[in-house]
Sequence to fold (205 residues):
Amino acid sequence: MSTEGPTSPSGLKFYWLEEYLFVDVRRRFQADRQLSAFDFFSIIIWKSNRSKSKVARRLLDKHKEHGDLEAIVRKLTRDLADASDKLACIMETWGFWLPLASAILTVLWPDEFTVFDVRACEALRGLGKEDFSKLASRTYSPTLAADYRRFVGAVRSVEAEGLTKLRDKDRHLWGESARDQLERDIANGFVKSPSAQETPSSKPE
Fold:
């Protein structure tokens, strides 16, 4: 039986994964300037559970000179802590696509970054704002970085009663998209037409 340790939360704490990430994991990162593999992959499964094995294989294949998965993750997150351009570091140096890259950065610096997610893009379009959905499939470049900063600005500009923090506005947009999709699905009897858009996801990862 496992016991709770610095990076091994109790079952109940881990059940509330988002709170664990934004409180415990972030606090540990601020103190240690690195993450354990457990905490890092907790972020991965929070954003995209199906991606965890693919991310692990890619890190082991491309960065095995740093050692095992634990050592690789600690090197990655130390690099992030030291990087002046954190988006370039995680995307260009470490090979993450924007959806997962932004999720990692959001947990560690939630006042500067927000999760790039197609649900947020959909909700922003519904508010008459720019369509950012194509950013998901683009590799890192200064232009992508500038476009992502515009996306962050668009999320930050959302006006909703009582919401001032960037993270809460991100949650609000995700929730609006999920709510609206459920209403559409109920109206359609959960039958998709051939032209219907798939459930919003974050591909590539």
Observations:
- The chain has ten helices and no strands.
- Residues 166-187 form the longest helix (22 residues).
- Residues 41 and 53 are 10 Å apart (CA to CA).
